[in-house]
Amino acid sequence: MDFLTLFAIYVVVVLTCIVLVCKYSGQQQTPFSIVFNCVAKVVSPLTPKWLQKLSQRSLHRLFHQRNNMFIYLHVLLEAAVYAEFTYEVFGFCREMDTTVTSLSVPYVLLAVKTFFFYLCIKRDPGTVTKKKVGGQLHIYPYDRRLFHPGVSCPTCQLVKPARSKHCRVCNRCVQRFDHHCVWVNNCIGAQNTRYFLLYLFSVCAMAGDIAVLTGDMLLHAVLRSGLLSASYIDDQGQQQPAGPLFVVQHLFLTFPRIIFMLGFLVFVFFLLAGYALFHSYLALVNQTSNEWYKSRGYVCQHCHPTATADQLCNPSPDHSKRYYYSRGLLRNLGEIFFPLQPVRKKDN
Ligand SMILES: *[C@@H]1O[C@H](CO)[C@@H](O)[C@H](O)[C@H]1NC(C)=O
Ligand SMILES: [Zn+2]
Ligand SMILES: [Zn+2]
């Protein structure tokens, strides 16, 4: 197979991964899990019982119990990228007179990101507790559409406040529940959605900035090598100009680690940028991922006259407005950054 085909396959695979992850993130039945289940079914009769049990248990521990695995993985990937950047790209850039100021931006971003990452991990997302539930019940009114009054959580044995949800991984109810994020090993809820948003944006900025610096470095390397005006002698003994294919091949062979890192960064950037935009959109319309996901299944009799009874939302005068909770973009954002606190009961 020639190099260009291989390269095209590489690009297609990366793009397909991005599209698939964007499309299916947050859903229960992802193509990945379907494929995984099929493979498991085929492989399981061939593997010994103890191995099956072990793998099941470790999978369970990895995805259905709180654990720091993904935090370690996150730090490891980050360390790899920064090591590569510091040891290879930094030196090249210095030689090409990139200013120290622009080369230190990635490190500043790393510090900022780490700060928000830490807050995401450490901050209580808004756990519903016996002590606080009285006040938490009054933060949001029940909409009688997705959240109904008087429903208790069977596990926590507490009345569920509106917009809350029980997190099965953490085994607690969380107020204004968004989702459980394995990368920070914590739920994203009322009290840490703001840090989560800032974290997403700082990771994007980090990946984007390093990718731009690296791209710039590669561009300079190509210009400097004179490859663009070079030529070679082909099989027939004719002189041929070295085309772009030649340049790409040269880069791959000369800087394999840097090219690999750049590919990874571009992938992470587009993935997280999409995710960050989705979460910003949710923040702007006063919705959580949980509500967005739940309300997609809802249809209105006005829009779907043939819908069955259990598919119907409660008739509401505002049914035509999809986001009838939104009180304006700024106020919605304000509520993310200054979350409503549980109402304290006055002691008389
Ligand atoms: C957000 O929606 C909730 C209902 O889900 C509502 O009680 C609250 O007032 C809304 N906040 C804003 C700022 O619109
Ligand atoms: Zn619960
Ligand atoms: Zn959780």
From TrEMBL:
Keywords: Acyltransferase, Cell membrane, Endoplasmic reticulum, Golgi apparatus, Lipoprotein, Membrane, Palmitate, Transferase, Transmembrane, Transmembrane helix. It comes from the Eukaryota. It is found in: Cell membrane; Endoplasmic reticulum membrane; Golgi apparatus membrane. It is a multi-pass membrane protein. Coiled coil: none annotated. One of its GO terms (molecular function) is protein-cysteine S-palmitoyltransferase activity. The chain crosses the membrane at residues 7-26, 71-92, 104-121, 196-219, 258-278. Residues 152-295 form the Palmitoyltransferase DHHC domain. One of its GO terms (cellular component) is Golgi membrane. Its EC number is 2.3.1.225. The keyword Nucleotide-binding does not apply. GO terms for biological process: protein targeting to membrane. It catalyses: L-cysteinyl-[protein] + hexadecanoyl-CoA = S-hexadecanoyl-L-cysteinyl-[protein] + CoA. Belongs to the DHHC palmitoyltransferase family. The DHHC domain is required for palmitoyltransferase activity. This is Palmitoyltransferase. It comes from Sparus aurata (Gilthead sea bream). The gene is ZDHHC4.
